[in-house]
Write a structure and sequence with these properties.
Blueprint (H helix, E strand, L loop, with lengths): L1 E5 L8 H13 L3 E6 L1 H10 L8 E5 L10 H7 L4 H10 L5 E4 L3 H12 L9 E6 L6 E4 L9 H17 L7 E6 L9 H12 L4 E7 L10 E3 L2 H26 L2 H22 L6 E5 L4 E5 L5 H16 L2 H15 L4 H5 L4 H27 L1
Parallel strand pairs: 1-2, 1-4, 2-3, 4-11, 6-9, 7-8, 7-9
Antiparallel strand pairs: 5-6, 5-10, 10-11
């Protein structure tokens, strides 16, 4: 299978991206199309010893979307950007997946516009793999959406469930909802309504609300939230890890005793770093788009890029998008919100009104019962 890789995206592009592609094709049964300025790519390949005999191809795209550029405006102005051309290869069927460490917003916009969404998906979500005590878990959505609705969180839960099951090997993934308390009445309207909707989706192993302090305790294999909340959780986690690293470095630098202690604990510290390093997980899939799109950290090195390409290969081999479409429809039908529901209406306004009542119904009942108890 062919994987399109944005060779110009990322803080250390193009060298680290190209090195990662070379590493990936040497250990994975895939072909890589490096998308970017062909002169620069050829020059970097020569410095790295060339690619003769390797399944590596080049697609010329002379323009680059900068990390600080406005995503939509940049894609409109730079029609030959590496991000746009890489996504177009997937749209045209010339590649199975796209991998990019470039401007995250631009990658998402290009994927949403050019690839569209899978049937039954209203909004795609970024599924980030995060470390925890007994093994990694999935956080979805980690920044693709702001102002999500309950049905969006339901879709995130189903997509995260399937990714955890088929890509991460969890037999019956536990799905939790990120909230400010464990009780079902905690949180705003979005959280409370989503709680009732997820509880009614019996195909999911829903374990209820997860507090932020329990995020890394493996209470859930999939943690669902709005993109704003998810991105804040992700960045706070990164900041906390950075702060801990700073404190350790400072203590181990204090005199001879600290340096001796570092030598003693170095193997353990290295193991901890590997377990918490985003590079080990490669990239985060944008679940729900009609194709495969892997978004990498902007600071990804060759090792991270190689792992991201491997994630893309696994995603394609497991045919996860087909499973997402089938399971989304099954769950929505069980909730009375599937194709047959929409086909039964000629008036779209009436359909949306009834849909809202079905989604909001149990939340309204919960709220009424609580008011009655208070009286």
């Amino acid at each position: 299978m062919k994987i399109a890789v944005d060779a110009m995206g990322g803080d250390y592009a193009p060298r680290e991206v190209i090195k990662g592609a070379l590493e990936a094709v040497s250990r994975c049964p895939c072909e890589v199309i490096l998308v970017g300025d062909k002169e620069i790519i050829h020059s970097e390949l020569e410095k790295l010893g060339g690619s003769q005999g390797l399944p590596l191809f080049i697609k010329d795209a002379p323009e680059v979307v900068g990390m600080n550029e406005h995503p939509a405006l940049a894609l409109r102005r730079k029609r030959n950007s590496s991000i746009k051309r890489a996504v177009e290869l997937v749209k045209k069927g010339k590649a199975r997946a796209v991998v990019s460490a470039g401007n995250t917003g631009a990658v998402m916009v290009a994927a949403k516009i050019l690839l569209g969404t899978l049937e039954g998906v209203s909004r795609p979500g970024i599924a980030v793999t995060m470390p925890a005590k007994k093994g990694p878990f999935i956080l979805i959505d980690a920044g693709a959406n702001v102002g999500s609705k309950p049905e969006n969180l339901l879709e995130f839960a189903i997509m995260g469930h399937l990714y955890s099951k088929y890509i991460m090997g969890r037999e019956n993934p536990k799905v939790g909802l990120l909230s400010i308390g464990e009780e079902e009445i905690k949180g705003d309207g979005l959280i409370r309504t989503s709680f009732q909707l997820l509880r009614r989706a019996t195909q999911l192993n829903f374990v209820g609300n997860i507090e932020a302090k329990e995020l890394f305790s493996n209470q859930a294999d999939v943690v669902v939230c709005d993109g704003l909340v998810g991105n804040l959780a992700l960045k706070v986690g990164e900041g906390a890890a950075s702060l801990m690293g700073y404190y350790l470095k400072k203590e181990f630098s204090r005199g001879l005793r600290g340096k001796l202690a570092y030598l003693l604990f170095k193997p353990s510290i290295e193991r901890i770093k590997r377990r918490t390093d985003y590079k080990e997980y490669g990239g985060a899939p944008l679940l729900g788009v009609n194709g495969i799109c892997i978004i990498c950290h902007g600071s990804s090195n060759a090792y991270a890029i190689a792992n991201a390409i491997k994630v893309a290969c696994d995603f394609a081999e497991k045919r996860l998008n087909k499973k997402i479409e089938a399971n989304l429809e099954a769950v929505k039908e069980s909730l009375g919100l599937g194709r047959r529901f929409w086909a039964s209406f000629k008036d779209w306004k009436e359909a949306f009104r009834i849909k809202g009542e079905r989604i909001e119904g149990e939340e309204a009942l919960v709220g009424a019962s609580k008011e009655g108890e208070e009286e």
